[in-house]
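Annex B. Sample input.
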Amino acid sequence: MATRTQMVMASHMTEAMLLKAVMDALRAYGWLSIHHWTSLHSAKGFPDVCAVKDGKLIFIELKREGKEATAAQREWLDALAAVPGVIWCGVLHPSQWLSGELDAALSQ
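Annex B, continued. Sample output.
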């Protein structure tokens, strides 16, 4: 759960800022990761970030605080969460990032 200070910070964090923080953390923890800068010619709803390390997978849909995943994004996340080896799959808001929700998965 995010603290009040984290919630204030989260409300000012853009999706681009969240993406940079997540990609930097993935790199620091030794994950191989990808983010497609444009969804042109890609499957609608595929998550923003895909990362792999030692046979483990992470899929992350980044959202600004208060925004929710679309139906197409939920469909992809639900399908990917069922794949063996996926240790974290979901929507990540700035408040969740700042509270450390993804930390345990990244440190595996």
